[in-house]
Amino acid sequence: MRVPRRDLASGHDFDGAPAMVIAAWTAAAISAVTAVEAVRRIVADRRRVTNGLWLIAVLLCVWVTAILVLEAAGRSSAAIVLAFGPMLLGVIGLVGVGVGLLANSLVVIRREGLSLATLVPAAMGLALLAEVFLGAHLLHALTEGISAVTAVLLVALLIPGALVVLQLAAYTVYAVVHRRLPGGRDAGVVVVLGSGLNGERLTPLLRSRMDLGISEFRRLVDDGGDPFLVCSGGRGHDEVIAEGEAMARYALAQGIPSNRLLREVRSTTTEENLRYSAELLASEGIAWTRMLVTTSSFHALRAGSLTRRLGLPATALGAPTALYFRPAAFLREFVAVVVHYRRANLIVCAVLVGMWGLLVAVVMIVADQAEPVILDGAALEVLAPRVKGVETD
């Protein structure tokens, strides 16, 4: 009879521990490699939005490693809590975020008016709640019995939502990290991105961007640099003057020398802000090696990503934003990123749904072709001693 090994200190059985220990060490090694690669990518280029996916991968690897370590130590109960606790908290968090976004949408609509932009939080909140509802319905259906067709359809509906939730988590985590990364110390140009005007005056949102840009301009001067400040923003259909002109007036009033100030007044999008600012600097014969872009906190990550796409050596910094406005504005930026990578997202969704459907089809085919095993009395007499041996082993 085999006696399971037991830890004398804790009293836990360690039967099968070597395999679990190997699994724990393997997971720890994978976690370390993933963490090193994530740091390397961020240091190499902080502007990659995919850096967030690497950070999520690190968190998942560490989570799995911790579960395996607890199992290897014989603490199965703690491992179960660690395995299912975060899942439960994640579901509760999704519900909380969904309800919070619905409430925030009401606040934004009351302050900013009803528009497609102010409805973004409500749409995302409803999508998150729908994802939780579908997941709960799938679990309930599995416990009650479910047809293969229904299972395929439910999971096919869950996959796109799960992919969006994963990307939103990654984008949010990296936006928090990105905001705390140092940079822009060696910039020769500061570009302030426009937003909107109140008549000929800057809105609080645009003023915060300008204040950050002016602060960074003065810091570069104090460090011995001779930078230029570019005020970038065209004239909207409902604006009296171009944003770049209003921003330049504000900069002059704050004491910025006119010979270090440039106005870019053609752009209507963030990409045009950056492209036209670079073209303006080139047309003025201004040589520069690195650009510092100042914008709002919710916009900094996507603005930095755009500079990378345009091939501009730049760092993006974000200015503080009103708390009530952050969720709606941040989600608009996230949606813009998802839309930009829509082809890749559609391909990933199609592959995942196809793999799930293929898996279900294979299981059904194997199940249909499998023949039931019928044991007669003679076979049972032969197997009986073996079964008893297994029970007493």
From TrEMBL:
<feature type="transmembrane region" description="Helical">
    <location>
        <begin position="151"/>
        <end position="177"/>
    </location>
</feature>
<keyword id="KW-1133">Transmembrane helix</keyword>
<feature type="transmembrane region" description="Helical">
    <location>
        <begin position="51"/>
        <end position="73"/>
    </location>
</feature>
<feature type="transmembrane region" description="Helical">
    <location>
        <begin position="114"/>
        <end position="139"/>
    </location>
</feature>
<keyword id="KW-0812">Transmembrane</keyword>
<dbReference type="GO" id="GO:0043164">
    <property type="term" value="P:Gram-negative-bacterium-type cell wall biogenesis"/>
</dbReference>
<protein>
    <recommendedName>
        <fullName>DUF218 domain-containing protein</fullName>
    </recommendedName>
</protein>
<keyword id="KW-0472">Membrane</keyword>
<feature type="transmembrane region" description="Helical">
    <location>
        <begin position="79"/>
        <end position="102"/>
    </location>
</feature>
<feature type="transmembrane region" description="Helical">
    <location>
        <begin position="20"/>
        <end position="39"/>
    </location>
</feature>
<dbReference type="GO" id="GO:0000270">
    <property type="term" value="P:peptidoglycan metabolic process"/>
</dbReference>
<dbReference type="Pfam" id="PF02698">
    <property type="entry name" value="DUF218"/>
</dbReference>
<dbReference type="GO" id="GO:0005886">
    <property type="term" value="C:plasma membrane"/>
</dbReference>
<dbReference type="InterPro" id="IPR014729">
    <property type="entry name" value="Rossmann-like_a/b/a_fold"/>
</dbReference>
<dbReference type="InterPro" id="IPR003848">
    <property type="entry name" value="DUF218"/>
</dbReference>
<dbReference type="InterPro" id="IPR051599">
    <property type="entry name" value="Cell_Envelope_Assoc"/>
</dbReference>
<feature type="domain" description="DUF218">
    <location>
        <begin position="189"/>
        <end position="335"/>
    </location>
</feature>
<feature type="transmembrane region" description="Helical">
    <location>
        <begin position="346"/>
        <end position="367"/>
    </location>
</feature>
